[in-house]
Predict the 3D structure of the following.
Amino acid sequence: MALTVVVLAAGQGKRMHSTRPKVMHLLGGKPILAHVLNTARQLKPDAIRVVYGHGAKELLAAFPQTDLFWHLQSDQLGTGHAVAQALPDIPDDHQVLVLYGDVPLVGVRALQLLVKSLEEKAFAILTSAPDDPGGYGRIIRDQAGAVVQIIEERDASDEERLIGEINSGLIGAHAHALRRWLDKLENKNAQREYYLTDIVSMAAKEGVKVEGLKAADSKEVQGINDKMELAEAEKTLRHRKAVELMTAGVSLADPERVDVRGELSVGQDVFIDVGVVFEGNVQLGDRVHIGPYAIVSSCKLADDCVVHAHSVLESVVAGPNCEIGPFARLRPGTELAEQVKVGNFVEVKGSEISEGSKINHLSYIGDTTIGRDANIGAGTITCNYDGAEKHRTMIGDGAFVGSGVMLVAPVEIGKEATIGAGSVIVKDVPSGQLTVARAKQSTVKGWKRPTKPAK
Ligand code: UD1
Ligand code: CA
C-alpha cells in the first residue's frame, strides 16, 4: 500500500521560551526537525507532508529539499487540526503515518512495525512506558488490553495520571478512516484544541480495534517541549553515537563526553579523549589519536595523525603521521602532507604544507605554500593582507625561517634559504643563502641611565 508521512511542526514551542520555532532548535548539531525528516525518508514513503506555522520563513529556508510538501496551519488549533491541513491532498487508499516534529529520536524499526500493523488493523499507535510519564497523554486500555482512549494529562483525573503507559504521539491509520474521524473532532478540553488523540476513542466506539505498540526503548519516543527535555534528548543521542563508535572499535576515554554532531567515520584503533566535538563529515584513519577538548569539523585525517588537546580544526586534510597542537587552530583550506608538525598557538589557513615541514610555535601562516622539510621558526607571521587584498607566500623545500620573521606577501623564499631571526622580508629571498633584514645591533659607549634629581 502507498504510504504518506505527515510531520507536525507548526507549534511555537512556548515552553522553550525562545523566538526560534521549537523544531529549529539544534539537536546533535541539526534542527530537531531534520532528525524526523531523515527517519521519515528511510521509510521510502510516497510523500512526506510537513505541517508548518510558526517560524515559517526560517523553516522553509532550512529545508529546501524538493521531496517535501508543505502545508500551512496558520492558527495552531491542535494536533488533530494540524493533520487535517494535509489530509485533503492524501488519497483515500494511502496509509498515513503521523510523526511529531518534536519527537526526533524514534527509530525506523518502530515505525516500520507501526506501518506493518496497518496491514491487519485500521489504526495503530506507538506507546511507551518512560520512568516519568508526566506531561504525556496517558493510554487507557480495556480489560481485553485494547486501547480505547488517550487522555491528555491536563484533562486527566488523579487516578488516570497514575497510568504509566503514554502516547508517543506517533500514529498510523488509513487515510479514509482518518478523514472520517478528523471531521468529527471537537475541542471540548482544557486547551480548547482539536486533539488528534481523540480519534482513538472514536475508533474504539466504532468497534475498530486500535493497536497499541510499545516502543522497545522509551527514550526513542521522548518528546522535546522544553530545554530540559532538549538536553535529555542530546544525552540520548550522544550515548547512541558513543555506542556506535565503540562497537566499531573506537576507544573513548569517556562515552558520556564525546559529541558527534554529524557523520564520523573511523579506521581501526582510533582513540578519542574527553570533551571532543566532531562536526560535519569527519573521516579518521587508523590509529588516529584525538586529544582532550579538540573540535574537529569536516576534516579528513589520515592514519597515525595525532591531534593534541584544545586544537580547533575546520576543513583540514592531513596526510599520515601529522602532529597538530596543543592549541593549534587550522582553518579551511589547510592541507598537510605526510609527517607535518603544527604546534601550539599556530594558526594556519588556505595553505599547503609539504612532507616533513614544521611550524612548531606561535605563528600565523595564511595563503602560503610550504615545500618539504622546511622549518618555520617561532613567531613567524605571513603578512598576507595589505588592507585590500590577500597575497600568497611561497616557501621552498628545506627553507629555515628564523624566529619572529615577518614575510610580507607576495613573496617567495628560495629552497634551502635561511632567514635571520627578526627579519622583515619584503623582497624575494634567494635559495641556499642567509638573508637578514633588520637593523644592525649597536652599543652606545659611555651611555648612562638617567637618574632622579636628589631632593
Ligand atoms: C502531544 C500529544 C500527547 C503525547 C505527546 C507526545 C496531543 C493532543 N497530545 O502532546 O498525547 O503524549 O504529544 O510527545 O496530540 N502541532 C502542530 N499544530 C498544532 C499543535 C501541535 O503542528 O496546532 C505540532 C507541534 O509543533 C509538535 C506536535 O504537533 O511538534 C505536538 O504538539 P505539542 O503541543 O508538543 O503536544 P504535546 O502537548 O506534547
Ligand atoms: Ca510535544
